[in-house]
Amino acid sequence: MTASAPCTSDDCEIEWLEGGGIFRITRQAKLNAVTRAVLDGLASALTELEGGRGHFLLIHGQGDKAFCAGTDLAEIMQMSDEAAAAKTDLARDLFVRLSRSPVISVAAINGLAYGGGLELAMCSTFRVAAPHVSVSLPEIKLGVLPSYGGTQFLPALVGRARALDMMLTGRSVPAAEALAMGLLDRVVAAGESVLDAAEALARTVTGFSRAAVNGIRRCVEVSGDTVTRAGLDVEAAEARAATASPDAKEGIAAFLEKRRPIFNRQAS
């Protein structure tokens, strides 16, 4: 059973599914470029999910040409400097919030993801793409910088050298290369639905213990290029908490009884 709910404008829509939802940018004619209304709609969807509506969010762009081509430059040009800066700050804060949210987010990348569109994908928990996809942070060509968190998200995913190569050349990276460098998590086979693959991934992860899933995410959040005592201490604390949870007892009992475990679906 699904139900669709409009955003506050025609720029996006929210489709509610059992256990989660799909946030879709509906600006196909404008390559799904990000407007202020898109940001407001995404924030609204995330707030509902964090409030108990569901556990996963799929992010998608209308059509198969563009996931999202970045911020809407026409909108920016019509804004005052203060309003444009406020939009940038809103996007950056929202993307960081999404990256840290207990809601599992999956960017279902069905076309090009450039600029702010790639930043939106990078702040998601996972990135699943169609084979014809290309990704880029081309802001250098306009004399500006990635400003929705891209200068931080990209090095965290692919390392400093690859991040600099992409950002200082503004080059377009095809799906296969993006997968190899760790910028994409999965590329579906030709003809396969990227949205279906994203939903399957989200349902797999959210089917596990929320205590364990969130514990792993918190451990990875503090990890770095080398193993540190501080990171190991976080792992030790999270492992103790997960082991003491009812989910751990249920998981072990289900394994011994050769049945599917029934985990607590509440975030922790």
Descriptive account of the structure:
There is one protein chain. The chain has 268 residues and is α/β, with parallel strands linked by helices. It has 2 domains: 3-206, 2-enoyl-CoA Hydratase, Chain A, domain 1 (Alpha-Beta Complex), CATH 3.90.226.10; 210-256. 47% of the residues lie in helices and 17% in strands. The protein contains 11 helices and 11 strands. It has helices spanning 36-53, 73-78, 81-100, 116-122, 150-158, 160-169, 175-180, 194-206, 210-221, 229-243, 246-256; strands at residues 3-6, 12-17, 20-25, 56-61, 66-68, 104-109, 112-114, 126-129, 134-136, 173-174, 186-187. A 7-stranded mixed sheet has the order 1-2-3-4-6-8-11, with helices on both faces. A 4-stranded mixed sheet has the order 5-7-9-10. Strand 3, helix 1 and strand 4 form a beta-alpha-beta unit. The two termini are 27 Å apart. The model has no long low-confidence stretch (mean pLDDT 93).
